[in-house]
Write the structure tokens for this entry.
Amino acid sequence: MSDVTTTDLYEVTMAMSYLREGMRAPATFSLFVRDLPSGRGFLVAAGLESALDFLARYRVERDDIEEFADALHRPARDLEPLLGLSFEGEVRAVPEGRVVFAGEPLLEVTAPFPQAQLVESYLLNQLCHQTVVASKAARCVLAAAGRPVVDFSLRRTHGPWAGLQAARLGALVGFAGTSNVAAATTLDIPASGTMAHSYVEAFPGEEEAFRAFARAHPGPVTFLVDTYDTEQGVRIAARVLAGLRRGPGCAIRLDSGDLDALSRRSRAILDAAGLADVRIVASGGLDEYGVDRLVRAGAPIDVYAVGTKVGVAADAPYLDAAYKLVEYDGHPVMKLSSAKATAPGRKQVFRRAGRPDVIALAEEEPPESAQPLLRTVMRGGRRTWSPDHWQDARKRFREDLAALPGPALRIEEPEPVPPVWSEALVRLTASVRAGIEARLRPEGRVAPPGTAVSRSGPLPAHTR
């Protein structure tokens, strides 16, 4: 299996038809999220790096032709018009780490029609998964209110590659480290880890386990204290740590039970033992909601480790995203399906300080003091945007986050800032819609208003 054949079958059948019909003119597709998931005040754009890597190496080889033929139950010679096809188009996209909202293009592809069509599934796969996980992770950082957050998600993500992405995305939005060794070494993310309950169970008692662990690791250590009785485990850990005199960086980890109450009792035990510098790490099914409750309650927890619920974005595991044709051969096009209408034409999104974003046409001049979000990142099938490190994306994220209003940042019942449309986009949409409806009227008849085509509702009420 190759990246080329990691696609939906209808992408192949449509591309073959376009080639047969001579439809090779440039087509522009816009990838955007229709609506924010419930409980989200914003999204964090992510996945662009892997999408650009895919497009840069895209080429249909002989093995791909044979796989397509097998799937279609046709001879390979029928698929040969696709042989050698590569991506030669332009990509304009929102850089990773930028805060985005529903309706705003994350990415626009302009390429010969068959090329632009064939890459749809892979692009949606990469941007949707990574954007939804990055957005969940960002909310954990917000909930922790300055306390370190660590990624423990590898064992619960949907495959090793998803685990690597989750670690990178956590770092991108501000996580302090990851337990994933491959991510730590490959992506230069600080590694962080403790021990498992099985380790403690393998020894006659907790003290023997803690001392053995300390002998194997000369630096700061973290002891898991809730294998049996948590408070007793903390007392044993305190006794061992007091004798080690390892300096700052040592910790205990609480992984179950009432983390608020247990962290308070643990802090008291550690302080009484003269171990005020020993930190408390909390884990065990946490996400932004659990972290937020603990922080608001004033629990004396120093570090939060999040895993399962964050690595799979458990409460909002998908995006209602689309990759829709908005222009073909220089002509704007749109879809009028009920509740799924699209806006025609190539777009730009302008960000204005203290005001909603403006979704505009690509050729429009920006409003005063506004900055464009979509950047040209690929031209002629080659990257024009240098490979991006997660640290660069983290800087962009922090800047955007600082500019968001308080209601959008809330963990419970956040209020997003919906973008508005430019006047030019409103006019173009109305014009294209009118043209489509005129073509669809029965010949010689004038359709009553609103009955020619199923509508998705009124145009946006607010423009810039």
Notes: Confidence is low (pLDDT under 50) at residues 446-459. The chain has 16 helices and 19 strands. The chain has two domains: 9-133+319-428, 142-311. The first strand starts at residue 26 and ends at 35.
